């Protein structure tokens, strides 16, 4: 068993590594970030990193998750207002060149690394989708979403268009886009007019 | 200049290579398909393939495009009926394990091969998106799509949810899904109730 002192040192090292990974990616980009570079910034040995993470992708993923704001949706009771807020924030994140480049690099690594792929799904994407679904359940109970609508489809209608635009790189990621998409999604989910 | 005979032989070889590429991928899967194997099936030398295509990805892409039904949308005047038809066909293609595996393999190769990536966009995806947009322009003129709606966003609302489901591999690709998505999309695009 670890002593309290050992545990404190271990927590400090863990958190220094995450901070170093985020700083390295922000400064150098994902491709030029290395485990050695992260270790040097964090003031630990490479082996300390490999004790907790199997790959560069895994430690960068944890750093991204640590930086990520709460995945929980606002619930002001007004679905349109909440959607607009979340879509503006999501679209602003994709519009940020550094974030976008890191996510693209992570997506490429996922193709060759099933463990990383599973962890991006389990630790980053599924929690976001589940949080969205919870907000939609509340909206459905409040009569702002059609009663019979399959909420898995609803979640995909919210985020699918953004992925599509990001992958094809054809159109701007700006606030006007977020607001247009909000309006379209609200109509898609709305109950039939009485 | 080529003589008519040379041109005929050349056309025949070109088309034999595409047929061989499609057969090889269907039988062996994309990963186990090789340029050598395609050449042997087509009864040509490897160099004949490399005269027209720079890579395995490029020849397989052309074989996929040759097999692909017309990208033009039906226009019966009834947007809901046309959407249902196209979404059922699109979702059936993604549901087919061989097609889906080939597309995933192509997506992985695209990450390392900018020329292939550009050709998938230019020759496969953009024509589909442009055809969808043309159908939506007609629907907008017929008053079945909201007058002010940005049709690029509309196209993404149609196909984005399908990509999202395909990439995350979480849900079924069946006819019930196609029909639910059709209903959601029709509501998303509809003009405001009078």
From TrEMBL, chains A, B:
MF annotations from Gene Ontology: DNA-binding transcription factor activity; transcription cis-regulatory region binding
Domain HTH tetR-type: where? 11-71
**PANTHER family noted in UniProt:** HTH-TYPE TRANSCRIPTIONAL REGULATOR RUTR, TETR-FAMILY TRANSCRIPTIONAL REGULATOR
Any Pfam family matching the protein: TetR_N
Q: Please list the residue ranges the record marks as binding DNA.
A: 34-53
What InterPro entries does the database record attribute to this sequence? Homeodomain-like_sf, HTH-type_TetR-like_transc_reg, HTH_TetR, Tet_transcr_reg_TetR-rel_C_sf, TetR_C
Q: State the name under which the record lists this protein.
A: TetR family transcriptional regulator
Name the coiled-coil region(s). Answer: none
Q: Which UniProt keywords apply?
A: DNA-binding, Transcription, Transcription regulation
Keyword set includes Transcription: yes
Organism, as annotated: Kribbella amoyensis
Q: Does the keyword Transcription apply?
A: yes
